[in-house]
Structures are given as structure tokens and as C-alpha cells.
Specification:
Helix content is 41%, strand content 15%. The chain contains two helices and three strands; from the N terminus they run αβββα. The chain has a three-stranded antiparallel sheet.
Length: 66
């Protein structure tokens, strides 16, 4: 039973990690980088996508203040 729970937890971790990686980091028109887990990510409609937060920051973006 313990092995099954550990296996399910590992699968859940891998699946959610893959989903988070498939979503781009969004740089808004104002130059703010929004990661998939950030507060205004879903509200950001006009953006340039980046694969990682580091790429977005190197392109001149900044982190949100909140």
C-alpha cells in the first residue's frame, strides 16, 4: 500500500511539473514577467511568451511587485 501511494505521488508530481513547463512565461506589454503560478498570469492577455522566467528577465523584463 505504501509503495502504491509513493508511486501515485511521483506520477502526480511528474504530471503537474510537465503541465507547468508547457505553459509559457508571459512578458506583458509593460515588461512584467508572469510565471504560470503568479497572481495575474491568467489575466495577462497581450504578451510575448518565453520558455523560462530567466529568459524573460534576460530579455528586459522584470518581476511583478506583488
Amino acid at each position: 500500500m505504501k509503495k502504491i501511494l509513493i508511486s501515485l505521488a511521483a506520477i502526480l508530481f511528474l504530471v503537474t511539473g510537465a503541465y507547468a513547463q508547457s505553459q509559457p512565461v508571459k512578458m506583458s506589454k509593460t515588461g512584467i514577467c508572469h510565471a504560470p503560478n503568479s497572481t495575474y498570469y491568467s489575466q495577462t492577455k497581450n504578451f510575448k511568451p518565453y520558455k523560462t522566467l530567466d529568459e524573460c528577465l534576460k530579455a528586459g523584463g522584470r518581476m511583478p511587485k506583488k
